[in-house]
């Protein structure tokens, strides 16, 4: 059935939903506001429902609009993936792009190297790349990367994933902290503490990094940081405590003035291999099987 709705119409709806304004959305899209309004009205006539409530304070999604928006997000992602993925899977340079954060570079390098050693010579090679945490999952969703090593908590929307391993987390305490001499403490003994937090955390990520995802312990906001040096410094200066995977302690620039204490009642940090749920590549499936075999043998 030809509805007359094109991909650009879905992106128009997404822009208005994001900006909550036809004027701002038109500016973002590079078209005139009247043209955008006519296009949205045409979509509404086609689907038989209003997608936006329009008022003096902007445009807000209706219930039908929210449903359309969610489907438009998925469709837009599929379209971007369809355009970006073939460039890595055709010609002499075809390869799998596998990414990870810098803190997991050793695992990334080991998996890529062992896969390339074991692969069928006719299969594309895997190439590792380090990316920022803020983009690594989205790159897989939009097809810029084939797979990524990503740590919990993970938004699995549009993804399939395989557990690589679970890493215990430890507490970082200032050297003068009352529990700094302990080998092990329970998470409940650290209730009420100020906690160093990473910038830009979601609600689930905040619960994880504050150690409140298993139980609602009280805690106070500490410094908000953007890199591991700031994280360690916040603890050393006594501005807060922190929780990190034990295997990543070596990534911190310095632990001088910081005590590392094991913690019971704290969830593990899961390292997962994630890929697009739309992916059907046998080569990608082969890499996932390799990761699973390596994890089982560990």
From TrEMBL:
PROSITE patterns noted in UniProt: HTH_LYSR
Keywords: DNA-binding, Transcription, Transcription regulation
GO MF: DNA binding; DNA-binding transcription factor activity
Transmembrane domains' residue ranges: none
Pfam families: HTH_1, LysR_substrate
Residues covered by the HTH lysR-type domain: 5-62
One CC-aspect GO term: protein-DNA complex
Homology family: Belongs to the LysR transcriptional regulatory family.
Protein name as catalogued: DNA-binding transcriptional LysR family regulator
Organism: Promicromonospora sukumoe
């Amino acid at each position: 059935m030809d509805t007359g709705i094109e991909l650009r119409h879905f992106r128009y709806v997404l822009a208005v939903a994001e900006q909550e304004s036809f004027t701002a959305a038109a500016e973002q899209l590079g078209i005139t506001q009247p043209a955008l309004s006519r296009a949205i009205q045409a979509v509404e006539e086609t689907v038989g429902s209003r997608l936006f409530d329009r008022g003096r304070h902007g445009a807000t999604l209706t219930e039908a609009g929210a449903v359309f928006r969610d489907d438009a997000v998925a469709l837009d992602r599929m379209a971007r993936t369809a355009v970006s993925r073939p460039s890595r899977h055709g010609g002499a340079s075809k390869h799998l792009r596998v990414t990870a954060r810098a803190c997991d570079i050793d695992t990334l390098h080991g998996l890529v190297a062992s896969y390339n050693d074991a692969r069928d010579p006719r299969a594309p090679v895997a190439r590792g790349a380090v990316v920022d945490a803020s983009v690594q999952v989205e790159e897989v969703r939009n097809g810029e990367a084939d797979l990524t090593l990503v740590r919990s908590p993970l938004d699995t929307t549009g993804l399939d994933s395989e557990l690589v391993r679970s890493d215990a987390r430890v507490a970082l305490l200032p050297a003068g902290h009352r529990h700094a001499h302990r080998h092990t403490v329970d998470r409940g003994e650290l209730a009420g503490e100020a906690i160093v937090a990473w910038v830009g955390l979601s609600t689930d990520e905040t619960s994880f990094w504050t150690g409140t995802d298993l139980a609602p312990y009280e805690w106070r906001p500490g410094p908000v940081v953007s890199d591991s040096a700031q994280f360690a410094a916040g603890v050393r200066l006594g501005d807060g405590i922190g929780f990190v995977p034990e295997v990543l302690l070596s990534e911190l620039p310095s632990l001088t003035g910081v005590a590392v204490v094991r913690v019971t009642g704290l969830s593990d940090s899961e390292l997962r291999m994630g890929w697009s749920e739309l992916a059907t590549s046998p080569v990608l499936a082969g890499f996932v099987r390799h990761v699973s075999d390596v994890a089982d043998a560990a």
